[in-house]
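ok so I'm stuck.
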Amino acid sequence: MALSRALRCCQRIFSWIPVSIISSVVLWSYYAYVFELCFGKTSQLIVGYLLIFHVCFIMFCWTYWKAIFTPPSSPSKKFHLSYSDKESYEMEERPDAQKQILTEIARKLPICTRAQSGAIRFCDRCQVIKPDRCHHCSVCETCVLKMDHHCPWVNNCVGFSNYKFFLLFLSYSMIYCVFVASTVFQYFLKFWVGDLPNGPAKFHVLFLLFVALMFFVSLMFLFGYHCWLVAKNRSTLEAFSAPVFQNGPDRNGFNVGLSRNLQQVFGEDKKLWFIPVFTSQGDGHYFPLRTLRESENPLLANEGKWMEDGGSDEESADENGPSVIIRTES
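replied:
not stuck anymore, here's the structure
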């Protein structure tokens, strides 16, 4: 037990190494740009550079902070088995009977997706019926609503609660890299032809340009991929394994059109799209479907029933004992 705890503690410490690397590079870029490149120069061009640089730097830090420290959302108590349901499920040894128990419980929940076998998606580790687009993360050791992936560079699960922040982090990172590279390039040329004296600034300018271009290229592909995912209303997991509905797998099951797909992630108020505040639609437990009109969508029909049954279900959910969380398949 003590060894297991020690290993887990070491894992948590090592998981912050990628974040520390990114933070160190960004802090060094701030020092190199402001103090080595611009400090002591008073021209209007340099003042303009510094103003724009600090706007980009602040937005980058703000979005990175939100992507790291916004906790992933987990299913509400509605999706946890009550004490009596949990007892019945565990005492039943026949798999078919267990599936039937889960099916009866799921009738009261807004669930449209199924496992590959056609059964209700259930996490044995968290003892929870998985909402649509929810998956278990073995790193965070919890089920995450609309899970996209676990990102080591933010040491966090990217999902419903912070997907907008993650996208903004990628976009402001690209803007930061483009601005630094474009403004540093002219000084790089001057150092190259010998118009400026050699000194510490030459080293910083050289590596500023190299690092900015290197990060921009890698971020460009990642950001482009996630833009495609947003346009199609898919998560990274859904892009690799199509969600299964009652009529079978469908990669475009949640695709309701470009405009509504964008609103699900960024919200309806376009003035807030580029600010790292939470504006995503819904609560991550249910999503509109492409194949059905809203008036015919059983997901939305179950939503009303789900809300009406709130009181009694919450009371039964409170009776749940502590659950053990270990690795499981999505």
